[in-house]
Design brief:
2,3-Dihydroxybiphenyl 1,2-Dioxygenase, domain 1; alpha+beta; globular
Length: 134
């Protein structure tokens, strides 16, 4: 049902500093910052040969990652994103299996302009899961 790992998301207190670390110290290709007001974050993507790292910084005090950063001031791993072929079919299957889909259960456009959903971490071994339509 799930496909390849699309990205690992890391919340950071300072996106510019974190992006420079990946670019300058690790030699990675880092995208330009992108504000995602609907998700309350500013993101950059670190391109890897087999996946991506998404660096997230809260966009304002109402950001859904603000609480995570308050609890983890240095930042940390926030979620894993897996690609799926049919996000609605996967959502319906997971809901029938008892998994909780966060929000209103309807996909929203993510950073790649593709539909995404988030699954409750308590249902997946303590890990927040993002599903992205491939």
């Amino acid at each position: 049902m799930i496909g390849r790992l699309n990205h690992v998301a890391i919340v950071v207190p300072n996106l510019e500093v974190a992006a420079a670390l990946y670019r300058d110290a690790l030699g990675a290709c880092v995208s330009a910052p992108q504000q995602l007001a609907a998700h309350g974050v500013t993101v950059v993507f670190v391109e890897l040969p087999n996946s991506k790292i998404e660096l997230l910084e809260p966009l304002g005090d109402a950001s859904p990652v603000r609480g995570f950063l308050d609890k983890n001031p240095s930042g940390g791993m926030h979620h894993l994103c897996y690609e799926v072929d049919d996000i609605i079919a996967v959502r319906d299957h997971l809901k029938r299996a008892g998994a909780r889909v966060l929000g209103d259960g309807e996909p929203k456009l993510g950073a790649h302009d593709k539909p995404v959903l988030f699954l409750h971490p308590k249902d997946f071994a303590g890990t927040l899961i993002e599903l992205e339509q491939a």
